[in-house]
Amino acid sequence: MKHTTKTAIIIHLFALLHPAVATICRWAGVMDEIWLTMFTIAMVVLICIRESVKVEVIAASVILMNVAGYIIGVYGARLLALMLQSEMLVHAISTFVTTEIIGWSTAGLLKVFRKDSAAESRQTARPAPPDIKKVHIIWLTVAIVLILLFRTTLTLLFTDSPSNDRNLPFYIETLFSNTGIPVAMLCLTILLVRYIRIKRKDWSSPAKTIAVMGFCLIIAGVLAAAAGMIYLDGDGSGIPLKEYAQLSIVAFAAEIISYSIIYMIDYAYSIRAEMYAAKEQARQAEFQYTRLKQQVNPHFLFNSLNILDCMVRDGQNDKASSYIHKLAGIYRYMLKHEDTTVPLKEEMDFVEMYIDLLKERFGDGFDVITDIPKETMPLKVIPCSVQMLVENAIKHNIVGGKEPLHISISAGNGSLAVANYLRPKINEGESTKIGLNNMRKQYLDLYGKDITVSSANGIFIVTIPLSE
User: Fold this and answer.
1) Are strands 405-412 and 366-371 parallel, antiparallel or unpaired?
2) What totals of helices (H) and strands (E) does the chain contain, helices first?
3) Rounded to an integer, what distance in angstroms lies between the CA atom of residue 74 and that of residue 172?
4) What is the per-residue pLDDT across 350-376, written as a single tens digit (0 to 9) for each?
């Protein structure tokens, strides 16, 4: 059974369970807020576990989705009441629709926080859900307690009545009528999230929880006092304690929601940054492995040693010594340059050594013509990228025959091109293009520019970007 199918079963099951419980509670004259809250928490937690996200994200999701569920449920029920006469039917339908919306919103939102991208998930196994530890229980417990306190407080302090126009919407409007209050709340919350993630990332989960709760309580109290003095203290006698408490609860709920949203956005950006960094490291390692494999492979080493053996047997000691130094220089270059880029001058010196070694094997079977202006030499390329293009030309084409294989290396306008006439080997299979694909990924990651590959009029050309 697919993952999405299991998630759908969870959502539909709770979407049916919610209205059933709500109907029974209404029929029995029992308040259903706590039961519906607990079922919503259970649904969100199960979906989060299915999506394999961090437990801190589960806690934030529990808070956000319950608050969203409350808002959608209340105003959705009011909208349905305009069309339906039965209060019981209105409550059941609004509860069902709200649960479906919250369930699918949770599943869709959490896909952003998955550490594996869609492309990667096709190649790798799905990560196992995180182990539930003591700190995880603390996070979930705090989230559940906050939600239950929130719903209970709303029920006790903000019950609508015809004689009381100071209900929940009134206090929300009071708190956010002055744009300075939400702006201050948003800015302070962003600073807190970034401070904890960057400066206090070594804090334990309980310490982070205490810090966040304390911060939210202080900010809520200060903002409620500010809003109360502006809008509720008309005669200068002070804010009534009950109204200050109501306003503080609304401010605290708003601050918790603000923190949860900002935390999840910040977490998503952090996860994406980590994912891109990991992918870049993997591509770098893959590229380095490919270029090393092309050089340190049995055929290259066998041919090099055979050529060296022939020189020694023929008594060409000086030539053999020069050959050894060039062969050593090739490996020294590959081992030395672990950096992502090198000056084009160093790369071309390396390519020249590599061509000299190939000349010992193929003689006049190929020639390489370079046309690179001096002012281009300080520009940067990925190590061994030009050499790999020369190697590909030799590997996939007939070298020798009636005329040599012509290879040209030219640079200009911020790029370098390696071109050769197409003389494909007769018995060679289709190229996998692994080397070119790895090189393309490297240049996209480092420069944000793609390499270009063209084949027209019997000439194969690969163009790579140069950077300063």
Assistant:
1) parallel
2) 15, 7
3) 15
4) 888 888 888 877 888 889 999 999 999
58: how many CB neighbours lie within 10 A of its CB?
23
What distance in Å separates the CA atoms of residue 407 and residue 394, rounded to the nearest whole number?
A: 9
Question: What is the signed CA dihedral for 184, 189, 195, 198, rounded to 10 degrees?
Answer: -130
Run of H or E including 288: helix 241-295
Provide the CA 98 distance to its chain's centre, in angstroms. 29
Flag residues of the chain having pLDDT under 50.
Answer: 1-2, 115-130, 160-163, 295-296
Q: What is the pLDDT of residues 110-134, one digit of tens each?
A: 776 554 434 344 444 444 444 555 5
Instruction: Identify the bridge partners of residue 369 per DSSP, sorted by sequence position.
Output: 408
Element housing 143 (H / E):
helix 134-157
Alpha-helical regions (H) of 159-240:
168-176, 180-198, 205-231
Q: Is the pTM of this model over 0.70?
A: no
List, in order, residues 6 or more apart from 198 with CB less than 8 Å away.
none
Domains and CATH numbers, the chain: 1-116+126-157 (no CATH), 164-275 (no CATH), 283-465 (3.30.565.10)
Closest CA to 372 of 345, 346, 351: 345
pLDDT at 76: 84
* DSSP E strand boundaries for 258-374: 342-343, 366-371
| 203 Ramachandran zone, left/alpha/beta (phi>0; psi -120 to 50) | beta
Task: Give which of 49, 40, 30, 47 is closest to 71, Cα–Cα.
Answer: 40
Whole-number pLDDT of residue 408: 93
d(CA 127, CA 52): 7
